[in-house]
Amino acid sequence: MYKLRLIVVIQLFAISIAFNTTAQTPLNDANWQLDSIKSDEFNGTKVDTAKWHVLDCPSGDCCNWGGATAFEKGNVTDSGGILYLRNDGPGAAPFPCSGSTYATGGITAKNYNYSYGYFEMYAKLPGFTDSAGNVHSDKFWPTFWMAYNPFCSIHNEIDIMDECCCTYNYAESTGSGWGSAGIGSDTCQQIRQGFITYISPVPLCNGFHKFALEWNTNRLIFYRDDVPYFENYNNPSFVMNPQKIFMDLQLAITCNYYPGTPFPQYMQIDYFRYYRLKLDCSTSSVLLTNTDLANYVFSVKSNITIGNGAGAITLNNTDVKYFRAVNTITINGSFTAPLGSEFALIPTACY
Prior knowledge:
By secondary structure, this protein is mainly beta. The protein has helices at 2-19, 290-295, and strands spanning 32-34, 52-54, 70-71, 76-79, 82-87, 103-104, 106-109, 117-124, 128-129, 135-136, 140-148, 155-161, 173-181, 191-199, 209-216, 219-224, 227-233, 244-251, 265-277, 284-287, 301-306, 313-314, 320-331, 335-336, 342-347.
């Protein structure tokens, strides 16, 4: 009974540690591996149309969920290692979508094939600083989100960065959350399971920032610049259909551009990266010595045991070790994590 209690305490404590550091991201956690096929560094001279569909209203794409804009393929360019989503301001020729006169840019994945993993976009959002030092981004609605069948039927959606309407007016407030809708009379009515408005301590138009999410069957954790700010656990709505990725610059119908806004304005994307956990969920690992610890190959295990009570195991002060297991993580005997090291034990579902 004592041993069982010790395991539970270690698991819960590990989660607490991870949320108060830069834990659990691919930056620190060797259990993640990049899926380069489904990622994009945007280092070419044009959009990779094998991966992405460029949103284009005249070709029949949705005319912006905010209702004020039309997506135009000419407003999307890939140059110098950056994907540019451009808005030229008011006065463009009307598009065949509710008479919209505000053209903008966006892309979406070709397929609904993104599921559990870690999603990261590194981007600089639109906005500017006026002569008085005030930041403005009125009407802009930059987004990074994913959905299954977003226009009707069974609707699953996760918003990594997506806040409705005029919330982003000062280039600091963005939203994160998730929701779903089932089959029925209101098949397109989204049900919000959880949502938060996150206020950045610095303007998001003044530099590049990471916007990220860990999505697993039993957790959602949202990150800004490798720091978690919103999480939820063990909600059945996390089990969703595979998703499409959207990165687009929407515009809000309910507010206007700030007077004197310099155009063009851009949402600039340096990269999109998709990571998956290395899964070895049927294997248990036993680490009895410091050599075993140093040679450990990181992946999600069934069970992990560190030590047998006979000898001491010690991390180096520069070690970064994140252990993930489906069932139990047990430490026996003397174990030391010195100042400067980073150590976490993370219960993780095998997807």
